[in-house]
Amino acid sequence: MIKTIIAGIFIFGGLFFFMVGTLGILRFPDVFTRIHSAAKCDTLGALLSLMGLIIFNGFNWTALKLILVLIFIWITNPTATHLIGKAEYLRTLDEGAGINKDENI
Amino acid sequence: MVKILVFSIIFLSLTIMGCIYRAIKGPSSADRLIAINVIGTKTIILILMVSFILHETYFVDVALVYALISFIASVVISNYIESLGGKSR
């Protein structure tokens, strides 16, 4: 019973972060602010939801697979977000801006 | 616990609807790619919750392979956006 309550608290926290990230994607005015909101949605929402599922499951091989999925999400999603932001920044540069002198890359 | 997981699945589906709106409407191609990336993460969580409802733990492997394929698609499409250049939408 107490395990269900703790797992439910974690899963509802994850759902809160997913809702906030989706509101940011819908409402923010720029590409880079939307990238910021989507990164919150990927890391914190996935962490809290998977922690709730791990607590509900107990410690066995399925919990180790869930931790593997969590580590993989945490490595790959910031990498993909960084690549999208860099591609959009390079696409919208002016022609004479001088990429070699740019300090943002 | 099953009621909490069913409510979570319905709520995640509603937020996926919001991301699909941004993926259709989004002005630039990077907006669409961000929305598809977030939809991929939510789909992984949704597959794991379905596996806990049905008591079928081999869906965890399906979620892991889905994460791999989603990451490769994001990297390839962002390289394509970078190679477009210019002001093209």
From TrEMBL, chain A:
Protein family per UniProt: Belongs to the CPA3 antiporters (TC 2.A.63) subunit G family.
Subcellular location as annotated: Membrane
Keywords: Membrane, Transmembrane, Transmembrane helix
Record's protein name: Na(+)/H(+) antiporter subunit G
Keyword Transferase: no
InterPro entries, sorted: PhaG_MnhG_YufB
Membrane topology: Multi-pass membrane protein
Major site of localization recorded for this protein: membrane
Chain segments annotated as transmembrane: 6-26, 47-75
Entry annotated with the keyword Cell membrane: no
GO molecular function, one term: sodium:proton antiporter activity
Family matches, as Pfam families: PhaG_MnhG_YufB (PF03334)
